[in-house]
Amino acid sequence: MKRGRTSRASLETQIAIVQTPSRPDPPADLCPEERAIWGRVVADKPESFPPSTVGLLKVYCRHAANADRIARLLNQAWARSAELALIDKLSAMHERETRALASLASRMRISQQATISPNRRSVSAGPLSAWIE
Fold first, then answer.
1. In sequence order, what are the residues at sequence separation of 6 or more whose Cβ sits closer than 8 angstroms to the Cβ of residue 84?
2. For residues 18 and 72, what is the distance between their CA atoms, to the nearest angstrom?
3. 20 to 30 A Cα–Cα from 29, which one of 12, 80, 112, 125?
4. Domain-embedded: residue 92
5. Is residue 41 assigned to a domain?
6. Burial bucket for residue 16 (CB in 10 Å: 0-12, 13-18, 19+)
7. pLDDT tens, residue by residue, 39-64
8. Mean pLDDT in the chain?
């Protein structure tokens, strides 16, 4: 180690090596629909996912795909004027999947609520920021 002050020339020639974090690839055991959801979520988040949230993200993708499947079945049931018991059961299943999605999104800090700073009065970005004062 050198003694004394660091020269100005030495300070100007130092190079900072910054590694950009890589985005995690979807696990192989996800179906194509779940893999597509994984890709959208990972691409939407500006920073990387810590290893501790990868498992939560996997479960989130499964719940999102299940919610989409149930929503399609619910739409078909309404279009066929199916019995109300089936519609009620599908609605309860969809609500359960949606609650799980909301919980996981807030835990992983990917929900809209997680992107709003409590100290600021506006949304960080998005079309609604013009309406929030």
1. none
2. 45
3. 112
4. yes
5. yes
6. exposed
7. 999 988 767 777 788 899 999 999 99
8. 81
